[in-house]
TrEMBL record:
<protein>
    <submittedName>
        <fullName>Iron hydrogenase</fullName>
    </submittedName>
</protein>
Length: 555
């Protein structure tokens, strides 16, 4: 039944945003209604008191922005509410309680995968509540592992950075493919953020051909766990219960897309998605203290590499993976310039441009990061204009075709949250000023919030710092990228070493899953292999027609 769910709502009919209304207590005539509501010819609403002194007060009009939609988990269809109920920490406890023991038929192996942004949120929250410096992500991962295995009985706990590694490799391949097609499907827009992708599917279908079809790290983790790992363990996909911990609610909807459901085994690649906040509810329910260090777990050697570092952005480093690839594969040295970006970032840190220039001064590549819906609107407009698309009478229409050299961007790393995934709507608040309410959502009751579920910039910076703590060369996130090579520092060397191992493992995964032996990720396979690769590592999008018909709205 869940496969048939429609992820989309019709806001004018289904969206309810609570508006705080202060009602001063007034004397009420016995048996009379306290107030009545009047509507004037302009459609304004008034509350009229029915006491002796009639008072009329104009009511505030509620406004609902897209940010409200994405930040809110209350505005959901009844089908989605069932889905969300099935993706809660109580559902996880329920599953674990009723999971038959190992030797009994029907036992499912519980596997947990956690996003590095969620680990960063936990690390920053621990540091904030204890006043200590940030706890390294590796230590947080060890504690999460100890909790999940010892308290909950999970068999395997991974972070999702290896899945992201595969996603980046496939992303680069897709970028190359689009470039080879005479650039006509460029610019390419990142696809790892379901918040942005669903927005495009619903309101900007003209953008869909530009959105990368590479699966997100969560989706690839699902493919790995239910496919490659299950095979290694001698299990079927349905023998595994896979939970992910993610920084936002949108990932729940991503996991429920039909593309990520395997009909043959009647199972989803990810069975349940918890936000970081919901995961903490689970920890609290089991009275586990995440602030107590644990020894690195020798009992659970992970078969995937832990916490791979991808230099670039904490939202996934998609743009930087492309830039790094272009620099490495160029026959001539390229210069990375962020000069315009620095100027831009002073006004708007969520929108930054990067330009690669050839020795003759010509522009080889122009990319940008674009976080938050305010910036997104601008990017969508620019990309559509450059592609010669205009929306005429509600339909995207190609009005002209321009050359590649005229494009504003070749690639844009788009993320729906201001500040990116470290600031996802399911992340933890600053612990001194806020708490997690009983539903596991972020409830800021101090001065840190901005009246919504996004955190303030200072707190987002704390989580960002926790994300990179000890894992990147301080102050130079582009050490690998800018020729002449920057002096190698420790973190960069570690990143290179572990990523080389990850590259080898990635080839093994690709060869095993596509039944073809390859020596590099981008290598062309036979038709069958390519078809399998597409199915395993790519997805597709569908424009969603609005269901709102003005005359059909009931008031
Ligand atoms: Fe989720 Fe926000 Fe990251 Fe998008 S940017 S994937 S909505 S946390």
């Amino acid at each position: 039944t869940l496969t048939d769910l429609n992820d989309y709502i019709t806001p004018s009919q289904a969206c309810i945003k609570p508006v705080e209304q202060v009602n001063p207590s007034r004397a009420v005539e016995s048996g009379a209604a306290a107030t009545e509501i009047r509507i004037d010819s302009n459609g304004s609403y008034y509350e009229v008191s029915k006491g002796l002194a009639q008072q009329t007060q104009k009511l505030q009009q509620a406004e609902i922005s897209l940010n409200d939609c994405l930040a809110c988990s209350g505005c959901i269809t009844s089908a989605e509410s069932i889905l969300i109920t099935l993706q809660s920490h109580t559902e996880v406890l329920n599953f674990l309680e009723h999971n038959p023991s190992r030797l009994v038929p029907g036992h499912r192996i519980p596997v947990l995968s956690i996003a590095p942004q969620s680990l960063a949120s936990l690390a920053a929250s621990l540091a904030s509540s204890s006043g200590q410096p940030s706890v390294p992500l590796a230590d947080v991962l060890s504690r999460v592992r100890a909790f999940a295995t010892e308290c909950l009985g999970f068999d395997h706990v991974y972070d999702t950075t290896f899945a992201r590694h595969l996603s980046l490799l496939e992303h680069i391949r897709e970028f190359q493919e689009r470039q080879d097609e005479d650039g006509h499907r460029l610019p390419m827009l990142a696809s790892a953020c379901p918040g942005w992708v669903c927005y495009a599917e619903k309101t900007h279908s003209e953008m869909l051909p530009f959105i990368s079809q590479t699966k997100s790290p969560q989706a690839i983790m699902g493919t790995l766990v239910k496919g490659w790992m299950a095979h290694k363990w001698g299990k079927r996909p349905e023998d595994i219960y896979h939970i992910t911990v993610m920084p936002c609610y949108d990932k729940k909807l991503e996991a429920s897309r039909p593309d990520f459901f395997d009909e043959a085994s009647n199972t989803r690649d990810v069975d349940c998605v918890l936000t970081t906040g919901e995961f903490v509810l689970l920890i609290k329910e089991k009275n586990f203290d995440l602030s107590v260090p644990v020894p690195p777990s020798p009992t659970l050697p992970s078969d995937l590499p832990d916490l791979l570092v991808h230099l670039g952005t904490s939202s996934g480093s998609y743009l930087h993976a492309i830039i790094s690839h272009l620099i490495r594969s160029s026959p001539t040295p390229l210069t990375l310039s962020t000069a315009s970006a620095e100027a831009t970032s002073k006004q708007n840190a969520d929108s930054t441009e990067y330009v690669l220039t050839a020795p003759d001064g010509s522009t080889v590549f122009r990319g940008a990061t674009c976080y938050g819906f305010r910036n997104l609107q601008n990017v969508v407009r620019r990309v559509a204009r450059d592609a010669g698309i205009r929306v005429i009478r509600g339909r995207p229409t190609v009005v002209s075709k321009r050359g590649a050299s005229q494009k504003a961007y070749d690639y844009v790393e788009v993320m729906a949250c201001p500040g990116g995934c470290v600031n996802g709507g399911g992340q933890l608040p600053r612990s001194t000023t806020a708490h997690i309410d009983t539903s596991g959502t972020l409830a800021d009751d101090g001065d840190g919030g901005m009246g919504s579920k996004w955190a303030d910039r200072a707190w987002t910076r704390e989580v960002e710092r926790a994300y990179w703590d000890g894992r990147e060369p301080v102050g130079d996130r582009f050490g690998l990228l800018t020729p002449p090579a920057s002096p190698k520092r420790k973190a960069t060397q570690i990143a290179e070493r572990s990523n080389a191992h990850a590259d080898q493992l990635a080839l093994l995964v690709l060869s095993d899953m596509c039944n073809v032996s390859v020596s590099r990720w981008g290598e062309e396979m036979d038709a069958q292999g390519e078809e399998r690769r597409r199915k395993l590592f790519r997805t597709s999008y569908h424009a969603v027609e609005s269901e709102v018909i003005g005359l059909g709205v009931k008031w």
